[in-house]
Amino acid sequence: MNPLRDAKRLIVKIGSSLLVDDATGQMRRGWLESLAADIAACTARGQEVIVVSSGAVAVGRRKLGLVPPLKLEEKQAAAATGQIRLAHAWQDALAHHAITVAQVLLTLDDSENRRRYLNARSTLETLLRLGAVPVINENDTVATAEIRVGDNDRLAARVAQMVSADALVLFSDIDGLYTADPRKDSDARFIPEVRELTPEIEAMAGDPGSAYGSGGMVTKLVAARICLSAGCRMAITRGEPMHPLKTIEDGGRCTWFLPSSEPRTARKQWIFGSMKPAGTLVLDAGAARALAQGRSLLPAGITEVNGEFERGDCVLVKDTEAKVLGRGLVAYSATDARAIMGRKSGEIEAILGFRGRDELIHRDDLVMEG
Ligand code: GLU
To answer: Residue 85 and residue 88: Cα distance in Å, rounded?
Structure first.
């Protein structure tokens, strides 16, 4: 098993300290280029790659002459100027491999609010389909303290969950999880593989304050919890060496967190288990057949819309005999769904005044009964 090579969809998270030289505030271009070459090797063999990159504050702060500790608004100002440079550096590095980069700035809401979540997810899916590499960071300039994700470990895990990624690699300044902080405790043992986050494993991260690894092991375990529930394999490894992705692919040391299910199964369990249906769509026989064949649900096949729901809510799907066929996340509100039911997807814009999605429920958002 090589979780990195096997991943169809791979997320790579890079912390500020790897990308930005602490002493000078300059970006470590040579290292970035070696990582870009690794990413290009992945895309060349058909893998989809998303980058979650920190560094906006670290790069921007010096340009504005700011000295730590920074106040929240100073961090935001630093991020505003640093993010441009960060995106440029990624663009340059990947352009050498003829890869197009797309900047995506997310807030907590985009990953946790279901309506926003569908938008962010379809944008990312579209970029990947078109062969671009999305470079994601938190939208630091508008996110205030209470609504910040705060750390990109967790943001990266949320992204992994959102796009059903197969693997996430967190590059850190430590090569994995140890039974205790190896810098302080010479008895600390390395843990190569974790299948379940037991209290014993959680305890290994130590207190948030004294956590080892610059981003802290605690936030990495929070990310691991999200990944395990999303069916995404996650690695913690040292990012410092040149060609850091190739290094772990070739067997370099890292801790793998290995979930028991696949991303698609996990996503379906999530839709099934955690959401109460807010309404019902009744389908004609043709749409019921299309669904049974694994296709998406189009407005044309709907004969009735019951209940009040918003875009992103979970709804039941029934046939004309009221038999439940499945459930899924709906891409239109109940009002809009009523307006477009029975109509062709091509007519949606003329009816609603905006061009929404062709599908009422995308097949990835649909779980069939039984
Ligand atoms: N979004 C922040 C930045 O780009 C970093 C957050 C983190 O490193 O976890 O500077």
So the answer is: 5
The pLDDT confidence band at residue 277, using thresholds 50, 70 and 90, is: very high
Other C-beta atoms closer than 10 Å to the C-beta of 229 total 16
Establish whether residue 151 lines the binding site of ligand 1, counting it when its CB lies within 6 angstroms of any ligand atom.
Answer: yes
Tokens coding 11: 């997320």
Residue in 22, 27, 54 to alter for ligand 1 test, most ligand atoms within 8 A of Cβ: 54
CB of 54 within 6 A of ligand 1: the answer is: yes
- Whether 247 and 315 map to the same domain: the answer is no
Q: What is the pLDDT of residue 210?
A: 53
Provide the number of structural domains found in the chain.
2
Q: Please report, for the domain that includes residue 157, its CATH number.
A: 3.40.1160.10
pLDDT at 77 over 60: yes
Q: Is 172 in the pocket of ligand 1 (CB under 6 A)?
A: no
Would you say the CB of residue 152 lies under 6 angstroms from ligand 1? yes
CB atoms within 10 A of CB 287: 24
Q: Tell me: do 282 and 170 sit in the same domain.
A: no
Ligand 1 near 60 CB (within 6 A): no
User: Where is the domain boundary, 261, 292, 312?
Assistant: 261
> 94-114 pLDDT, tens per residue?
999 999 999 999 987 777 676
| Residue of 86, 137, 149 to test ligand 1 pocket, by largest number of atoms within 8 Å of CB | 137
- Rounded CA separation 106/129 (Å): 20
Nearest ligand 1 atom, CA 54 = 4
pLDDT at residue number 212: 65
pTM here is: 0.89
Range of the domain at 61: 9-261
Tell which wins on pLDDT, 183 or 65. 65
Q: 186 CA to middle of ligand 1, Å?
A: 31
Annotated binding site for ATP: 13, 172-173, 214-220
Decide: 281 and 318 in contact? Cβ < 8 Å: yes
**pLDDT band for position 12 (cuts 50, 70, 90):** very high
In sequence order, which ranges of 9-151 are alpha helices (DSSP H)?
Answer: 16-19, 29-44, 56-63, 72-95, 108-112, 114-129
Q: Which residue has the higher pLDDT, 246 or 206?
A: 246
Ligand 1 neighbourhood includes 140 CB (under 6 angstroms): yes
Q: Which of 198, 226, 261 is the last residue of a domain?
A: 261
Share of the chain above pLDDT 90, in %: 75
Say how far apart CA 296 and CA 293 lie, in whole Å: 9
